[in-house]
């Protein structure tokens, strides 16, 4: 609380943009001209596939699962070009190799031996790391939003 006779001084945050009165009035006039008969702005359409610019958690999860299944099928077909300790089930070995490669663990027990299989593993690893990262990012965003919704709102 300020002392009697002294005015309260506010400082602008360094990260806040400075206000340009002329530019603000231009934007206000543009928004007023866009308003319809109801007096509200029209809804802005999303600019991305299905959900806007940022895909949702479930969409990234479905993409990750589809990528894992496609990789499993590709490495199942290329299992003749792989060397190392393999079990009798080629589909399980292909799925295991995909998960180990996509998460960059690399146990080195199943190794691509031909140039084509090595190139396929490299492409699969790069794209897989990006998808796993996107999936973990969306999972973290979901958990933070869920936790934020549970917190009580402060008084204004």
TrEMBL record:
A single GO cellular-component term on record: plant-type vacuole membrane
Residues spanning the membrane: 57-78, 116-136
UniProt KW Membrane keyword: yes
UniProt keyword list: Ion channel, Ion transport, Membrane, Transmembrane, Transmembrane helix, Transport
Domain named Potassium channel: residues: 62-144
Chief place of localization: membrane
Membrane topology summary: Multi-pass membrane protein
Pfam families with a match to the protein in the record: Ion_trans_2
GO biological process: stabilization of membrane potential
Family according to the record: Belongs to the two pore domain potassium channel (TC 1.A.1.7) family.
Protein's UniProt name: Potassium channel domain-containing protein
Species of the source: Miscanthus lutarioriparius
């Amino acid at each position: 609380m300020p002392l009697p006779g002294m005015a309260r001084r506010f400082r602008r945050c360094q990260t806040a943009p400075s206000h340009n009165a002329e530019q603000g009035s231009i934007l206000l006039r543009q928004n007023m001209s866009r308003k319809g008969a109801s007096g509200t702005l029209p809804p802005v359409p999303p600019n991305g596939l299905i959900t806007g610019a940022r895909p949702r958690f479930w969409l990234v999860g479905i993409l990750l699962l589809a990528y894992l299944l496609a990789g499993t099928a590709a490495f199942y077909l290329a299992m003749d070009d792989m060397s190392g300790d393999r079990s009798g089930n080629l589909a399980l070995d292909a799925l295991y190799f995909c998960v180990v490669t996509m998460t960059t663990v690399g146990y080195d027990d199943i190794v691509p031996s031909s140039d084509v299989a090595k190139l396929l593993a490299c492409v699969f690893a790069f794209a897989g790391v990006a998808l796993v990262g996107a999936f973990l990012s969306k999972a973290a965003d979901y958990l933070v939003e869920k936790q934020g919704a549970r917190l009580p709102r402060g008084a204004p």
